[in-house]
Amino acid sequence: MKKFSRYTPAARVGIVVGVALIAIGVIGLVVDRASVVLWWTVIDAVCIVFDALFPVSLVALIAYLIWAYRKEALVAQGPRPTNLVRSSVDWRIAGVCGGLARWWAIDSLTVRIIVLLLFVASPVLTVFIYLILTLILPRA
């Protein structure tokens, strides 16, 4: 097994998140029922924050799109591809947003912000669509 410091930064983040989720699950199994009610209270508080965050993020997205359009920052560099593929150069997770940005000839940051806003609105549907596009679209 490799030392933790030899993993890439992205792999380290994945390891830390995985270990934290396992620890939360073990704590949830070990601790008594009263603390489970506390966890649900925290989850309700997070849902309230996300409900308030959606309209604010929608206004921020519209303001960003207007600003970027006026600064001509929405235009992507490079030629538009003939077919829709995942990007092998401009990628963060699987290259879907980078591929969509090249296909629509816009900046990839704009696509990522729109996907993030869709994730706030409907996390399950956004993750489902992203996974489907990851599986269907070939790598460039």
Features:
mainly alpha; 140 residues; 0% strand
Question: How would you summarize this macromolecular structure in one to three sentences?
Answer:
It contains 5 helices and no strands. It has helices spanning 9-30, 33-70, 96-104, 108-121, 123-136.
Report the radius of gyration as a whole number of Å: 19 Å
Pick out the low-confidence regions: none
Oligomer: single chain
Class of secondary structure makeup = mainly alpha
Mean pLDDT: 77
Q: What portion of residues is helical?
A: 55-70%
SSE run: HHHHH
**Count of helix runs:** 5
The CA-CA distance between the termini, in Å, is 32 Å
- Total number of β-strand segments? 0
Approximately how much beta-strand content do the residues carry? under 5%
What kind of sheet is the major sheet?
none
Overall shape: it is globular
Set down the secondary structure blueprint:
Blueprint: H1 9-30, H2 33-70, H3 96-104, H4 108-121, H5 123-136
Helix pairs in contact: 2-4, 3-4, 4-5
Provide an overview of this structure.
By secondary structure, this protein is mostly helical. The chain has 5 helices and no strands. The chain has helices at residues 9-30, 33-70, 96-104, 108-121, 123-136. The longest helix has 38 residues, at 33-70. The protein is globular, with a radius of gyration of 19 Å. The mean pLDDT is 77.
